[in-house]
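Supplementary Methods S3. Input chains for the assembly prediction are listed below.
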Amino acid sequence: MNETRPVTRIQQKNRATILDAALDVFSQRGFGGATVDQIAATAGLSKPNLLYYFPTKEAIYEALLGGLLDTWLDPLRAMKSSGEPLPEILAYVQRKLEMSRDFPRESRLFANEIIQGAPLIENELSGALRDLVDEKAEIINQWADEGRIARVNPHHLFFSIWSLTQHYADFDVQVRAVLGEGVDDPFPEAQVYLTTLFTRMLTPS
Amino acid sequence: MNETRPVTRIQQKNRATILDAALDVFSQRGFGGATVDQIAATAGLSKPNLLYYFPTKEAIYEALLGGLLDTWLDPLRAMKSSGEPLPEILAYVQRKLEMSRDFPRESRLFANEIIQGAPLIENELSGALRDLVDEKAEIINQWADEGRIARVNPHHLFFSIWSLTQHYADFDVQVRAVLGEGVDDPFPEAQVYLTTLFTRMLTPS
DNA sequence: TATCTTTTTGACCATCTGGTCAAAGCGACG
DNA sequence: CGTCGCTTTGACCAGATGGTCAAAAAGATA
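Predicted structure tokens for the full assembly:
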């Protein structure tokens, strides 16, 4: 008993296809608004076939969200107290902005989950996330103690980095509507703006 | 024909009750994830009774979203070129933050709509919203020309005000999870932080 | 009180939704 | 080739969902 069957190439491919399709659908309609049929159609599979790889709609959603928070926080983990304060922070901002540009669906999936009260990841938020943020907040405070950056509330500093960068993924439609036809890629402008913002706010007077 | 029936007191009360219940449900589950039964139950009405006041689920959603963008932009309209630049901008930030505190459901409803591609209000975004923002952007640029604030990209300045303030409504769960038990109201801290941020960024060097 | 309009409801319906199942198709391997 | 296990599918199901309708209840008005 408990025999582990090998994972075939077909399984690998189909699981990946399904998750990609589900990311499309969930990130656009939220969990409740998405249907298994939509995901199956997007993935190019029949519904029973899809349910052969994932037992339920929830299972697909959980599989997607599972690793997401971790991936999402990698850039923050990379912020080292040994580096120069301002460049470290600006590098974090830039990596986060790049993630918004390159993985907008993941950002929207995450936003949807949180807006709806984070029923699935609340534990991780007040666990792993909180611990990591507390740890990095220490570093920010230390840098301020040493006079290497201006003092700010470190937790709210992180909130501002998250909201400012993710805004360009989650509210993409609005950003483009307001900027109009003249701007086809808002991200270069955004990068300049955010660099200016954090530089001015954090440069010691 | 085309006789207009008067709006009774019962109609006023029930319509309001329904819209309030719908705001609860839509803001938490998104349009697709919400059901008419949930709204009816929240409003304390039977489903046919609810559908006596609004013909369809869509109609309720549209009624809610209808005036929302306008209300949402009132604080921006109040920003006057005749005032002192920095206080005008800080007042806008503060009013927007107050709206996040006092009307989080409206903020989430709006966020949901935009994340899902703004199918219902895209026209207003690239119409009324864009016009208003362009007009106010002029004022920002003028103030920068006169050396009364530091120069920034005005459109992205507005994006940053929106994202930073709305974050405290839309991502409330995350904010509270990260801040932990010690903080029961994040808004005072947020106000201090945002004031610092915009003051440092915009004060001419 | 009688009449007329507005409001409320139980019963109902077609469609959609998440999910099941038995059987058929298919590929690897001896 | 034949067998065995993995993959795919059409048909199906129970419950949820958006919405309808005729009739009953409740106001308003006189």
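The mean pLDDT of chain B is 96. Residues 176 and 182 of chain B are 10 Å apart (CA to CA).
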